[in-house]
Amino acid sequence: MLELSRIFIKVVKAGSFSKASLLLNMAPSSISRKIDKLELLLGVTLLNRNTRQLSLTAEGLHFIEGADKLIQDADTLMAALKPSLAEAKGELKISVFESFGRLHLTPILAEFLNTYPKVNITLDLDNKPVDLLSENIDLAVRIGNPADSGLKARLLLKTKMQLCAAPQYLSQYGQPQVPEDLSRHNCLLLDRHRQKNYWQFCKDKQLTKVAVNGNFSTKGGSPLLQAALQGLGIVQLANWMLSDVLAEQKLQLCLPDWQTVVDDQHCGDIYALYKGSKYPNPLLRLLIDFIVEHLPSRLAG
Q: According to the model, what pLDDT value does residue 76 have?
């Protein structure tokens, strides 16, 4: 009813379906059907329509006065439910996987709390899976879209995988020129319980799959990054882990003309996960919007 009333008011103020269609980004025929539906719900005719102009019926004139106030009241109510800069307060419990939380989310949370000082946040940096309901967690930040259909998910960051190594390693063992060269390098690997590990690359629609080996593997990215910084080998990690060390030239990109390809199962995209609710916590929505707004500037730096 509110949506139909908004459309009706736009049509009346615009003076025609065609002009209202530009304001609403809807086809005139679709707007006409919406008005038909509103009239059917009310059981009255609101508009006199002809090819040249629209005019309000007596019922339409009476309805628009009440509808305008109804929408203003609804908008005021919605605004009151959303935390404002001065009034945002409450508590949030957040679980974030360690590497991303330490590198990027913790500084953003500090900035959020400086902006909204009446908010209290409890942060848990942990890589283990969490049950948001039983552990009373408001927000979990994890890699990959959740399999749990009971959770809502919002994409925070599209991840690009990058290949790099320390200058001292490349000076000693040489820069790989093509993906096949990696089979002769010490590659630092994420432990996925496989007998063989493969890295895939794409260039000009050419897909190349290379079996890689190395003397160090781990389940987390942070130890691999530290090993690469010590000159142990070549590592493949997400761009958000590498942005600072690449900018400081502590690591150098390898095979920059080749795009690293990951399968859907190990897609590194990062999501904000929260409990499904018809009326989401407005404070949680405020925090997620804040994270989405501030993440790009951190990675750009």
A: 66
